[in-house]
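User: I'm putting together notes for a lab meeting next week and I want to include a structural view of one of the chains we've been expressing. I don't have a solved structure, so I'd like a prediction I can at least talk through. The sequence is below, exactly as it appears in our construct file.
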Amino acid sequence: MSTAAEAPEVGRFAPSTTGPAHPGTLLAALLCWLDARARGAEVWLRFEDLDPQRCRPEYLDGQREALAWLGLDWDGEERQSDFTEAHAGALDRLADAGLLYPCACSRARVSADASRAPDGSARYPGTCRERPLPASGEGGWRDCPEPLRVRLPPGRVELTDEGGADLSGSPAEEYGDPVVRRRDGAAAYHLASVVDDRRIGVTRVVRGRDLAPSSAVQRALGRLLGHGAPSYRHHLLMLEERGGKLAKFHGAVGFEALGARYSAPELCGLLAHACGLQPRPTPSCPADLLPGFEWSAVRDVDRILAWDGAELSLGP
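Assistant: Thanks for the context. Below is the predicted structure for the 316-residue chain, given as structure tokens.
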């Protein structure tokens, strides 16, 4: 808990607006909200809507409606697309430091030529690393039609999750230089996330463990921009079975179907039970879960969830 003399802690929930809210979305939002409210911290809702091919206004509106329906409130709300000038300013700083370069490699070429990064993606081998930007008098990076990457320095980033997981790594060696501006001109995920966290003063990042591998990359990028490091807390995921395999629960059932089957207290209670906060799926609202909330009560193991077209059921 922060004292009056300390700067307030700030958290954020940052869903991508590429689809409707689903149980995984709602669980992540609930845990982020509980973490902040239990600590007396601010918590912001940030819609990540920079992908022009996949993000849709109706998904953003639907997610906002779903989160309010569940009983979650926020100290501020924003859309990443409203802050493209801040993203461009960060690219200016990286360009002035001589760290940006255009990349002509297609995804297929990178995948074919590269080894795997810790998160399973293709490690960028540095094929275009020595290519220069256009001269600043000609517009610099703004004149590049190609994606832009940033030259990460070598070396290890030491990070530990609050739950004890080791998030450390050597991003330049393990991932290669990340894309910071996409071919379509939008800021890429890592850059936008780091810049927007800094802008609203985020001190705590609470999110699903599928995003844990990106922590070291984002910390390395934050260092290049002169940003401090937030604390991290990564939590369990909702998984579904697909042909005998487990995958992140996404797209199997959206908020419209959930809202038609469950009341908000019923679904909140089911999510609380799924993550270990309640022994049974007892109808409740987020505020009911707040007294005594502790991360030690939240299960570490991912939970299997199934939707049969009528209701949700929990696996082990």
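A couple of points you could mention at the meeting. The chain is about 30% helix and 15% strand. The two ends are 34 Å apart (CA to CA).

User: Perfect, that's what I needed.
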